[in-house]
Amino acid sequence: MKVIFMGTPDFSVGTLEALIAAGHEITLAVTQPDKPKGRGKSMQYPPVKEAALAHGIEVYQPRRVREPECIEYLRKYEADIIVVVAFGQILPKEILEMPKYRCINVHASLLPKYRGAAPIQWAVINGEKVTGVTTMRMAEGIDTGDMILKEEVELDAEETGGSLFDRLAKTGGELCVKTLTAIENGTATYTPQNHEEATHTTMIKKQLGEIDWTKSAQELERLVRGLNPWPSAYTHLNGKTLKIWKTSVLEKETGKEPGTIEVGKSTIAVQTGKGMLQLEEIQLEGKKRMQTDAFLRGVSLETGMILGN
Predict the structure, then answer these.
(1) What pLDDT score does 41 carry?
(2) For 206-296, CATH number?
(3) What angle do CA 165, 235, 260 make, to 5 degrees?
(4) Is the peptide bond before 62 cis (omega within 30 degrees of 0)?
């Protein structure tokens, strides 16, 4: 099929690559504008732009996809279908209805659960045992379209936001190829979502990573995994930011104030609102990420110190 591909972050690239490998003709890649990044504020290409250019695919970067000139620009490509994966803008009706087979979306959850932004991280943070990918025919609402195919993915006990991201990106690409085959063959079915069962996720912001030690150790262990690698969970030690990369739950209590640490020869455990959280991999501001035993060889801590502001 002749495909216009719309996507922006790393997650989108897996589907773009899968469509190319399956022999579909990607006539145009539409992505967000370049953005300044780093201390030097040099302009950086979105991952989809980098991948598209590597394959010799034309790239279009409109600031607002709703503008009439953008709509007309897309129309001239006469695509059979538009595939949208984490593009980052809401498409107007004119684009949704433009191609022969409409627009389909690859969404990283089992709809109608986890509509909206950051479904991958929230699945880990909320302790889901199973998540997955859904392909759907897009409608004007956010993730409200009729579902086409689903693929379940079980979460590992040590699943992080990053590891699940990679797994779902691969699954999403494979599922999108199957979906296009079904659409082209006329065998695709379109199942309306039960909107009463819908749940919505919010965007992940850096502030979410600041640890509230009054929460349970189990909740905080999931938060650490869900926010790894970005934006990471963190607390404060002697006025410096302490990033926490890996933890485990201890079913014990000290009776101390939440945030109080208990230091062993090579271990650090923190009292929470329920249970204790053992810190296994941490990173003090200005230092490298390291295992706790290595950390303790360079930093002097004492039992009874309190983490946090």
Answers:
(1) 76
(2) 3.10.25.10
(3) 125
(4) no
Q: 222: which 2 tokens?
A: 């999931």
Q: Round to whole Å and give the CA distance between 193 and 115.
A: 11
Give the amino acid at 28: L
Determine contact, residues 79/99, Cβ cutoff 8 Å: yes
Nearest to 77 by CA among 41, 126, 29, 43: 29
Domain 2-201 coded CATH 3.40.50.170: yes
Q: Are 128 and 93 in contact (CB under 8 A)?
A: no
pLDDT for 38 equals: 73
Phi (first) and psi of residue 32, to 5 degrees: -70, 160
pLDDT at residue 51 in the model:
98
H/E element, 218: helix 217-226
Dig out the tokens for 98 from the structure. 């433009």
253-286, pLDDT tens digit by residue?
999 999 999 999 999 999 999 999 999 999 999 9
Q: Which amino acid is at 254?
A: T
Domain range summary for the chain, segments of one domain joined by +: 2-201, 206-296
| Below-70 pLDDT ranges, the chain | none
Which candidate, 245, 146, 177, 164, places its Cα nearest to that of 18?
Answer: 177
Q: Is 260 exposed, middle or buried (0-12, 13-18, 19+ CB in 10 A)?
A: buried
